[in-house]
Automatic annotation (TrEMBL):
It comes from Nostoc commune NIES-4072. GO terms for biological process: mismatch repair. Belongs to the DNA mismatch repair MutS family. SMART domains: MUTSac (SM00534), MUTSd (SM00533). Residues 1-16 have a biased composition (Polar residues). The lineage of its organism: Bacteria, Bacillati, Cyanobacteriota, Cyanophyceae, Nostocales. PROSITE patterns: DNA_MISMATCH_REPAIR_2. This is DNA mismatch repair protein MutS. Keywords: ATP-binding, DNA damage, DNA repair, DNA-binding, Nucleotide-binding.
Length: 878
């Protein structure tokens, strides 16, 4: 059925359309007199009542339409035309719409903007309705955290739905990616950890139990509500939920029932009430919103935040792990530099690993062993990589099969991928390392499943699953019979053209088909007088007349019924296959996880070979000993051989630890032991920041189990990595550069331990010189003496070099430059000793500051230097 928006094939207004006069139509569904609405609009408002907080897309013929407030919202958000439509005696109501075949694209845009979208589709053909209202039902509820459609998800990252429960300082957090089935829960007692976990996960939607009056509403990023706990970052979408499903009384039985267990002990969360409540609340939300497409989740896993290396959001940003600081791009990030994966699952796994490095040495070594084996065995590595390229996104394909949204192409892709697994397993029969061994056994059920899918489904099935063409011949005798009938009838039609041409003597006679009239015989108007008597005229066009005959109509009815029956049977066979896949979801996903891990490790091995990385020796102690380390990203952006390697030694060696590295000539240190804190000085742009980040990145890479860009590395496991790198004003919270800097510094001083790695790039620059210097001095001293965290402190305050003469665990290093008469050459080499000048005035001269200003600056500096020997003064204080 075409309607008044039929002409709007492109609803986007090229030039902003004049605002429609809102007084001429109703734009609030609560304000209508329902008795005056026509049947369809009444059904619309009743459906809208059930989903007051979502945008309701309502199928009408070839369009999905929105009315009332949703029409206004849709038009505003997607820059579509807002118009109006007569809704019975009630008068005109606001209306906007999108073509039905493009609903996914428009729904994606709405969901990205933080809206929930409800799809109310026609569930019968308009012709079946025969005059009554076409049956429509809600077929899908889309919220940012519950997407399954391929086009709506980014293949390179998980799409998490999270749920939080907060009780005083304690919290529970559960999260799930319903497209891959991952489902985890945890509990903690430090609200800062909750914030950090949310920042790590970047969930698309967070469920919060509240007693807000507007339960069910979705707060879009940046929107606030008095019902939202303060510790939750404003950058996410929050769904305000009732507290009931988050109560222990409801959550616990829901989990027990879902995972068919008698106690939660096996899931690891029996003793964690807040974790249980968050997980139960999350499950209830899925049950509530995914009625039509119930999701298949993996068994709930419980984890502890402190079981992993803690990298706070600031540090993740500063180390540019998944995106650059400057412009937020993936290109130039650590993930970009390391990603050599060949599957979407591997790509997501690498991202997860980088965002959650390990602290468990055994786990790290298992990954390192696998990389080592893959580096040594080049043919194995290359064959594996080649094969992995042919494996599609098993995790998400299985997810779509489980929720009944997979089409036949998805199942063929799944079968193609599953049928590669035996090959994969035969490649690794001799493998020794744990992650390759995990691929040695492919459950026979998966081989059988792949075989069955291939045997049933045609090689390239259509996207639509209700219009036939999916199932091979000889799969089902009844299907074959129906196909034969349809084919015979089609042949009858084809013959009809030949026969009728012969009978009538009209060579241009054709048999055609259209949706409105079905089959017809078409004859050019000039031959209309030769038409036989049994032809019944149906339609007259400019150049042709269209006829039907009783025979043709009788045959048509048979053909259409037979085709419908055929399509229905194909659909039933297909959905049964899909159901079989869903039954094996857990087995497929377990294997997918193993494939993803092998893919990550193959990629890291490839990278290590090409970039000349070394295997880090991992220790439980505090030592950080890197010989000729390189920055993994900067190195790749420079021409080969241009990056200047630098060494780092930090953290006193525990007695009894061997010194195998000595022949590799580690950097000489002023003390026999490695220092805990390095004061790093050097001119602007000499490479201090790069060096600082390089150390953090090498440590982080080692803790995900990767080889590292260095000639040698022996690394004690860190519990946390902290960074503080030049801040910018945080306009959103109204904090100045200096306050941001102080907040970050306070966070470090309050949380760092002797097992942490602290990287400080300039402290105290945002205030008066002496304030800044004093703070920098006190901070360095506190870290070196009280915390003893392994620390590199880059600074332009050369006065800090004097700390090394006071504290035995502090050493000075500098990034060297070569001074020529009218230029400075950056050597990018880190060497012992403190720089005595910053060359800031030289930089100013090169930038073109007037000579008189440069001269005066030098005089002032001379004076200041005379008065800044603070170390001696402080020594006297002690
Ligand atoms: N080891 C290195 N080898 C080669 N090039 C390097 C090296 N370290 C840094 N660089 C190059 O030098 C540039 C400046 O480095 P960086 O930003 O680390 O300097 P900086 O000393 O921190 O400067 P500032 O004090 O002004 O912040 C980088 O963009 C990088 O390309």
């Amino acid at each position: 059925m075409r309607n008044s928006i039929a002409s709007m094939t492109a609803f986007h207004s090229e030039t902003p359309s004049p605002k429609p006069d809102a007084s001429t139509f109703i734009s609030d569904h609560q304000q209508v007199d329902r008795s005056k609405l026509s049947q369809m609009y009444l059904h619309y408002v009743e459906t809208k009542d059930k989903y007051p907080h979502a945008v309701l897309l309502y199928r009408v013929g070839d369009f999905f339409e929105c009315y009332f407030q949703d029409a206004v919202k849709l038009a505003q958000e997607l820059e579509l035309v807002l118009t109006s439509k007569q809704a019975g005696e009630q008068g005109r109501v606001a209306m906007s719409g999108v073509p039905h075949h493009a609903w996914e694209r428009y729904a994606t845009l709405l969901v990205e903007k933080g809206y929930a979208v409800v799809i109310c589709d026609q569930v019968e053909d308009a012709s079946e309705a025969a005059g009554r209202l076409v049956r429509r039902e809600v077929t899908r509820i889309l919220t940012p955290g519950t997407l399954l459609e391929e086009g709506m998800l980014k293949s390179s990252r998980n799409n998490y739905l999270a749920a939080v429960v907060i009780a005083a300082n304690h919290w529970g957090l559960a999260y799930a990616d319903i497209s891959t089935g991952e489902f985890l829960t945890t509990q903690g007692s430090d609200l800062e950890h909750l914030t950090q976990e949310l920042m790590r996960l970047q969930p698309s939607e967070v469920l919060v139990p509240t007693n807000a009056p507007d339960l069910g509403s979705l707060l879009r990023p940046g929107e606030t509500s008095p019902h939202l706990p303060q510790c939750l970052p404003p950058s996410f979408c929050y769904s305000l939920r009732s507290q009931v499903p988050f109560s222990q009384g409801e959550a616990r039985p829901r989990l027990l029932q879902k995972f068919k267990v008698r106690s939660l002990e096996g899931l690891g969360c029996d003793h964690l009430p807040l974790a249980v409540r968050a997980a139960g609340g999350l499950l209830e939300y899925l049950e509530d919103t995914q009625k039509e497409n119930p999701v298949t989740l993996q068994r709930l896993r419980t984890y502890t935040v402190t079981d992993y290396l803690i990298v706070d959001n600031q540090t993740r940003r500063n180390l540019e792990i998944t995106q650059t600081v400057r412009d937020g791009t993936f290109h130039g990030s650590l993930l970009w530099a390391l990603d050599r994966t060949n599957t979407a699952m591997g790509g997501r796994a690498l991202r997860r690993w980088l965002l959650q490095p390990l602290i468990d040495i055994k786990g790290i070594r298992a990954r390192l062993d696998t990389i080592e084996e893959l580096m040594e065995n080049t043919p194995l590595r290359q064959d594996l990589r080649q094969l992995l390229r042919q494996i599609y996104d098993l995790e998400r394909l299985t997810g779509r099969a489980g929720s009944g949204t997979a089409n036949a192409r998805d199942l063929v892709a799944l079968a193609d991928s599953l049928s590669r697994l035996p090959e994969l397993s035969s490649l690794v029969t001799e493998a020794r390392s744990p992650f390759l061994k995990a691929l040695q056994k492919v459950p026979t059920v998966l081989e059988e499943l792949a075989h069955k899918l291939h045997a049933h489904l045609v090689e390239s099935p259509p996207i639509l699953i209700k219009e036939g063409g999916l199932i091979r011949p000889s799969v089902n005798p009844l299907l074959d019979e129906r196909k034969a009938t349809v084919e015979a009838d089609q042949q009858w039609i084809a013959n009809l053209e030949v026969d009728e041409r012969a009978k009538t003597g009209i060579p241009s006679l054709k048999v055609g088909f259209n949706k409105t009239f079905g089959y017809y015989i078409s004859i050019s108007r000039s031959k209309a007088d030769q038409v036989p008597a049994n032809y019944i005229r149906k339609q007259t066009l400019t150049n042709e007349e269209r006829y039907i005959t009783p025979d043709l109509k009788e045959r048509e009815a048979r053909i259409l019924t037979a085709r419908d029956d055929l399509n229905q049977l194909e659909y039933e066979i297909f959905t049964a296959l899909r159901e079989e896949v869903a039954q094996e979801a857990e087995v497929i996903r377990n294997l997918s996880r193993a494939v993803a891990a092998a893919d990550v490790l193959c990629g890291l091995a490839e990278l290590a070979v090409h970039q000349g990385y070394c295997r880090p020796e991992m220790l439980s102690g505090r030592e950080i000993n890197i010989v000729d380390g390189r920055h993994p990203v900067v190195e790749q952006s420079l021409p080969a051989g241009f990056f200047v390697p630098n060494s780092t030694q930090l953290g006193s060696r525990e007695s009894g630890v061997g010194s195998s590295e000595e022949e590799i000539s580690p950097l000489p240190t002023p003390n026999s032991q490695f220092p805990d804190l390095i004061i790093l000085t050097g001119p602007n742009a000499s490479g201090k920041s790069c060096y600082l980040r390089q150390v953090g990145l090498i440590q982080l890479m080692a803790q995900i189990g990767s080889f590292v860009p260095a000639r040698f590395a022996r690394l004690g496991i860190c519990d946390r990595i902290f960074t503080r790198v030049g801040a910018v004003d945080d306009l959103a919270t109204g904090q100045s550069t200096f306050m941001v800097e102080m907040n970050e510094t306070a966070n470090i001083l309050n949380h760092a331990t002797s097992r942490s790695l602290v990287l400080l790039d300039e402290i105290g620059r945002g205030t008066a010189t002496f304030d800044g210097l004093s703070i920098a001095w006190a901070v360095a001293e506190y870290i070196a003496v009280d915390i003893r965290a392994r620390t590199i402190f880059a600074t332009h305050y050369h006065e800090l070099n004097e700390l090394a003469s006071i504290l035995p665990n502090v050493a000075n290093y500098q990034v060297t430059v070569k001074e020529l008469p009218d230029q400075i050459i950056f050597l990018h080499q880190v060497q012992p000793g403190g720089a005595d000048k910053s060359y800031g005035i030289e930089a100013g001269r090169l930038a073109g500051l007037p000579a008189v200003v440069i001269q005066r600056a030098k005089q002032v500096m001379g004076q200041i230097e005379k008065h800044s020997k603070i170390a001696m003064g402080l020594q006297n204080l002690d």
